Amino acid sequence: MVLPIIAVIWAVVLLPPFLRNRREGRPTHSVVSFRRQLSTLERARPSVLGHGYMPVRRAEGLRRAEVRKRRRDILGGLIGATALSLLGALALGGLFVAGFACCTVLLAGYTMLLIQVQKQAAERAAKVRVLVPPAQRRPEPAFALRRSASS
To answer: Interhelix angle for 95-127 vs 64-91, to 10°?
Structure first.
């Protein structure tokens, strides 16, 4: 007697949303629903040319010369800050000593990071070989061999 009552209660709870979804044409499968929502989002995103949208330029997109210049500028700034804080520590002492210590640690850390990046780049250059697809390979030159008969 208890099981049929529970079944009726479940049917009353679950059947109306199921029928409503079927009537409205909404899919019951979550993947189909997700794809529909994703396509709606793709259509709603701003276009690159139409709305003045400018993508953020990140370090990965910078040219090598720009990256080198930026790193050189940062290194120069750290060297300058360390030199100025050293002069201040020698002349005035006090808080400038702590500033000099901080600048020295930052300079040493940045230099170590630069060395690590250079090692990784050299290692990557040594390990990575560019593979040319077979369609773009040039065929080996075939030399015609001339036979000479001495008869």
So the answer is: 160
- Residue 12 CB partners (closer than 8 Å, separation 6+): none
Rounded to the nearest angstrom, the gap between the alpha carbon of residue 25 and the centroid of all alpha carbons in its chain is 39
CA distance 28 to 50: 36
**Which one is predicted more confidently, 69 or 145?**
69
Structure tokens at 89: 């520590």
Alpha helix segments (H runs only) across the chain = 2-24, 30-44, 64-91, 95-127
User: What is the spatial distance between Cα 109 and Cα 74, in angstroms, rounded to a whole number?
Assistant: 12
Q: Which of 82, 147, 133 is nearest to 108 (CA)?
A: 82
> pLDDT tens digits, residue range 119-130?
998 888 888 776
Distance CA 151, CA 143 (A): 25
The whole-number average pLDDT for the span 57-82 is: 83
- 25 conformational bin, left if phi > 0, alpha if psi -120 to 50, beta if neither: left
Between CA 74 and CA 69 the distance in angstroms is 9
